[in-house]
Design a protein that fits this description.
- The chain contains eleven helices and four strands.
- It is mainly α.
- The chain folds into two domains: 122 residues, no CATH class; 117 residues, Rna Polymerase Sigma Factor, Chain: A.
- The strands form two sheets. A two-stranded parallel sheet has the order 1-2. A two-stranded parallel ribbon has the order 3-4.
């Protein structure tokens, strides 16, 4: 039981590190984190770890393509959002800089126009943070609020380029804070460990009753848990559920 908990905590650290690196992690970092936790896995078990990370939208060695893990609803929302906002942002770099300078001088019309210009960029930034346990539309919403606040604070910028950088930074910070707050509420590591423990206990009870290993389908039918939840527990414990036939 202790080993399973340590494994879940190590996975939590791996996911957190990947989040800090734009949703990606190197194999060397995965193996080092597991090794530091005193966990030694063979190639097959490591493969299961990498498969699990991919289900969490984490790229191995390179960032995952956001369109591979956005839901259809999120893709539809993104396309509609960009279709609505891109036309508003169709300005030359010179026009954009002139509008920024006017906004820095507290011109209200220029501020509104600058917000319109940056709306598509909010969505592009949100794609970088998607797949981390929050909805894309919520990320865009947080980014739009940060954009509005940033435009009100441009008088501190030295020039237009600095203003653009400040706006992007505030949008990114807002999204990172939202993701961190959400992750904190979920207590990811404890939840994964507890769910894996529930699967282990129910598999043991049924296996002892039947006198053999049980299949995923049998455990799902007997316990009321979904097969997806059971297979996730198998992944996070690196197939270390002795009473369960993972192939069944």
């Amino acid at each position: 039981m202790k080993e399973q908990f340590e494994f879940a905590k190590a996975l939590e650290k791996i996911c957190a590190l990947a989040g800090q690196q734009g949703g990606m992690i190197r194999k060397e970092q995965v193996e080092e984190t597991l090794r530091d936790a005193g966990i030694s896995l063979g190639d097959t078990q490591l493969g299961l770890v990498y498969d699990y990370l991919k289900t969490k939208k984490i790229g191995i060695g390179e960032p995952a393509d956001p369109f591979e893990y956005l839901t259809k609803q999120e893709v539809d929302y993104l396309e509609a959002y960009l279709e609505e906002t891109r036309a508003l942002a169709d300005v030359s770099e010179g026009e954009k800089e002139a509008i920024a300078l006017s906004a820095m001088a507290k011109d209200p019309d220029a501020k509104r126009r600058l917000i319109e210009i940056f709306l598509p960029q909010v969505a592009e930034i949100a794609k970088l943070y998607a797949g981390q346990g929050v909805y894309l539309d919520d990320l865009i919403g947080e980014g739009n609020v940060a954009l509005t606040m940033a435009v009100e604070m441009l008088d501190c910028a030295e020039n237009a380029q600095a203003a653009f950088g400040n706006i992007a930074s505030m949008i990114m910070e807002a999204m990172e804070t939202y993701i961190a707050d959400n992750a904190s509420e979920k207590k990811t590591g404890d939840r994964l460990a507890q769910e894996a423990n529930d699967v282990l206990e129910k598999a043991k009870e049924l296996a002892e009753e039947l006198g053999r290993k049980v299949t995923v389908a049998e455990l799902a039918e007997e316990s009321g848990m979904t097969q997806e939840k059971i297979r996730e527990a198998i992944r996070i414990t690196a197939d270390n559920i002795d009473y369960l036939d993972a192939k069944g």
